[in-house]
Amino acid sequence: MAEPHQSTTIRFGILGCADIARKVSRAILHSPNSTLYAIGSRSIEKARTYAAANGFPSSTKIYGSYDEVLDDPEVDALYVPLPTSLHLYWVVRAAEKKKHILVEKPPALNVKELDVILKACQSNGVQFMDGTMWMHHPRTKIMGEFLRDSQRFGQLKAVQSSFTFSADEDFLENDIRVKPDLDALGALGDAGWYCIRASLWAANYELPKYVTALRFPIKNSAGVLLSCDASLHWEDGKVATFHCSFLSNLTMDITAIGTKGTLQVNDFIIPYKEVDASFSTVSEAWFTDKDLEWNQKPSEHIVTTDLTQEALMVKEFSALVYGIKHHGLAPEKKWPTISRKTQLVIDAVVASIDKGFEPVEVNY
């Protein structure tokens, strides 16, 4: 792999040795405008082992603390895959060190924490983006164009989404996503985040008026959600429902239904293949004579890409950082705004559960 030109390259540091950082570190190396400059762990031995196991370049600096990464003046941006409970402390510290922030989702435990994070990023002039990778796949843009097409799709009426996977016994006992002191939002913060983002994306990021959690969510003995459902309601009659779970077979579905058309995608978070991804659409479908069959079947659309969606995420983030660093541009507000709206709906689902599954009003 050719070394990127240093003058146009954003130098990343990584905090921690999380499993998902294997994917994002690979993306940093594949993106044409970024380089993996440093990694820090609470143990330098752990950081060295992780770097070697994941093929980090020999030039990557290895640190035995997170603070050493933050204090390195050559680090432009940080990828933060730490447990959600640690985001507030470390992201604020990083922003104060003028490091641009790519943080794993959910970015905070609640919107109150997220607002502190976003204020720190804004006041220090650094870019913020959460790691919702599917947003950066070219398929997402093309699907969005269909949803905004008044002739083919019409007006959005309903969204149904799901993200589930069947976690093994070790995950359900030991993963950080089932620990109340590390990732207290559980399946809602991990899998539900994607479904909520899908609902907002389909609605062109218009917030719902009310959110209602469905009854009988499943929690572990520590009170962390393992499975839950909720509905989102807009004043114009749109509705979105989602199901997220650590206890069911792998699904990653979106169905968006309009007055004239329908969009369906079955692998929206991680495509079946890295190099291409598909979705289906149908417009103004009806039945043949005697209602024996449909008058048309959905069309499949395949979108190819040279870079994976995570590399495209890193590429877009790095381009924003480059513009701030070298051209004096302001940080892009789109990404923190979308993160905050997603977090608001997360909060509303939690509040609805706590209030006995009553509707909760969403206020920006």
UniProtKB/TrEMBL annotation:
InterPro entries, sorted: Gfo/Idh/MocA-like_OxRdtase_N, GFO_IDH_MocA-like_dom, NAD(P)-bd_dom_sf
Transmembrane segments: none
Ranges where the GFO/IDH/MocA-like oxidoreductase domain occurs: 149-263
Domain Gfo/Idh/MocA-like oxidoreductase N-terminal: start-end pairs: 10-129
One of the record's GO molecular function terms: nucleotide binding
Family: Belongs to the Gfo/Idh/MocA family.
Protein name in UniProt: Oxidoreductase
Organism: Chenopodium quinoa
